[in-house]
Automatic annotation (TrEMBL):
<feature type="transmembrane region" description="Helical">
    <location>
        <begin position="78"/>
        <end position="100"/>
    </location>
</feature>
<feature type="transmembrane region" description="Helical">
    <location>
        <begin position="48"/>
        <end position="66"/>
    </location>
</feature>
<feature type="transmembrane region" description="Helical">
    <location>
        <begin position="170"/>
        <end position="189"/>
    </location>
</feature>
<keyword id="KW-1133">Transmembrane helix</keyword>
<keyword id="KW-0812">Transmembrane</keyword>
<dbReference type="InterPro" id="IPR037185">
    <property type="entry name" value="EmrE-like"/>
</dbReference>
<protein>
    <recommendedName>
        <fullName>EamA-like transporter family protein</fullName>
    </recommendedName>
</protein>
<feature type="transmembrane region" description="Helical">
    <location>
        <begin position="112"/>
        <end position="134"/>
    </location>
</feature>
<feature type="transmembrane region" description="Helical">
    <location>
        <begin position="140"/>
        <end position="163"/>
    </location>
</feature>
<keyword id="KW-0472">Membrane</keyword>
Length: 190
């Protein structure tokens, strides 16, 4: 038996396969220890937040590196960073109503502490670093990989030493493969 949907005929067997694949992907993408049916602040299931947040970070990082490489070399780097954060504040103000529980604004403001200042300092270093790195001639395809691997190696060590995160032999192998990968990506034939 087939079902007519729009211009497409869908066989019941195909629908069962699509349903099964969707269920499998949804369960596969679930964060460890999460329960089915939990809600997040956006009102959808926890799996969406788990995978959606990673996808948003990936899309944002791709856009970030592409756009920062396109910034004209004639603009002063500090002016450029200031302009970026003016736009960040405008965009943040526009999406603010979708994320904040209005009854908890004062409580959230009271929770602001030194860590936000630390993140701000790190972000300014990151912004200036990538902007100047690309201006000095780094390729988009190489610069991000080299810095990404270095960042991941350092964060792996910080996670292990400060936050007592597990470090397995597979993780160590991954670090070694990453270093080899950076060497191969950075290699230029003379």
């Amino acid at each position: 038996m087939a079902i007519l949907t729009g211009e497409f005929w869908l066989d019941r067997k195909l629908i069962i396969h699509i349903w099964w694949a969707n269920t499998w992907i949804r369960d596969f993408m679930k964060p460890p220890g999460s329960e089915k049916g939990n809600s997040n602040i956006m009102g959808s299931n926890e799996n969406f937040l788990f995978i959606g947040s990673a996808a948003l970070a990936v899309v944002g990082t791709i856009g970030y590196h592409n756009f920062i490489k396109m910034i004209p070399a004639t603009i002063d780097p500090i002016i450029s960073v200031i302009a970026i954060y003016v736009f960040v504040m405008i965009i943040s103000a526009l999406i603010f109503p979708f994320f904040v529980d209005r009854s908890a604004i004062a409580d959230n403001i009271r929770m602001v502490n030194w860590t936000q200042f630390g993140v701000a300092c790190a972000v300014v270093c990151m912004e200036l670093g990538f902007l100047l790195m690309y201006r000095s001639g780094w390729d988009l395809s190489v610069g991000n990989v080299v810095t990404g691997v270095a960042i991941n190696i350092v964060l792996l060590g910080i996670g292990f030493l400060l936050f007592k995160e597990a470090l397995s032999p597979i993780n160590v192998l991954g670090v070694l493969l990453s270093i080899v990968g950076v060497a191969l990506i950075s290699y230029r034939v003379a």
